[in-house]
Amino acid sequence: MYRFLLSRQWVILTLVALLLIPTMIRLGIWQMHRYEERSARNQLVADALGAKAVPVEKLTSPGHTITSKQRYRTVTAEGRFDTDREVVVRRRVNADEEVGFHVLTPFVLTDGKVLLVNRGWIPADGPSQTAFPKIPAPPSGRVTVSGRLMPDETTEASGIKNLEGLPDRQVMLINSEQEARRLHAQVLGGYAVLTAPEPKGDTPELIGKPGDENAPLNYAYAVQWWLFAAGVPVGWWILLRREVRDRANAAAAEETQTAPAPV
């Protein structure tokens, strides 16, 4: 009855099924790991955003590397904006996916150190993005600012190439070591995304809070792969029973056709 399982067709079908089951189980495990990683990152972001604001020099110093737990922490600083040495960061988009610049302004603290402040997004003056854009001035004099602490941008982490030969006062990456060389100053590690004071006229556009990664989607994918893995042997068994039934019916019909007619 089951000798057909040794046929070429059924041997291949069975081998494919045996290969698919562990592959799908493994894909489900990988998706579950992605779910756990994303959930952990979401929790880190939520904890950082919900933490109490602290003076920036409690979390960073010149040459310091911002850690994952420090990222998005709200920091405060007192000093003045140095717009004479302000630069713009090329090829940045806003919430509407429009390409423009981020405005990076040195903020000189009361002790002389410099905090890099990303004041937000502005549109480019033209399609070439070669001319230095017109930038609304920040508050003058001594002010207190607050912002979300961010790590230095690197090509390895962002995928953005740090191009050379750019137009004057334009950069590709926000990097405190690079800016320290340009400014000839002690620059705190990382930079701050400005949250207050808000700009007059809503320009530059402040950069919004980071959103949660869609971790539940990875959880759903994991369950889906495991259901697929469970469905493979079920499908194989259904095909087997169908084959047995079809062969039995075919044998019965053949037997009926070859049986001698009654006398």
TrEMBL record:
Membrane topology annotation: Multi-pass membrane protein
Classification via InterPro entries: Surf1/Shy1, Surf1/Surf4
GO CC, one annotated term: plasma membrane
Compartments where found: Cell membrane; Membrane
Superkingdom as given in the UniProt entry: Bacteria
CDD domains in UniProt: SURF1
Residue ranges crossing the lipid bilayer per the database entry: 219-239
Keywords per UniProt: Cell membrane, Membrane, Transmembrane, Transmembrane helix
A Pfam match: SURF1
Broad class of where this protein is predominantly found: membrane
UniProt similarity note: Belongs to the SURF1 family.
Protein name listed in UniProt: SURF1-like protein
Species lineage: Bacteria, Bacillati, Actinomycetota, Actinomycetes, Kitasatosporales
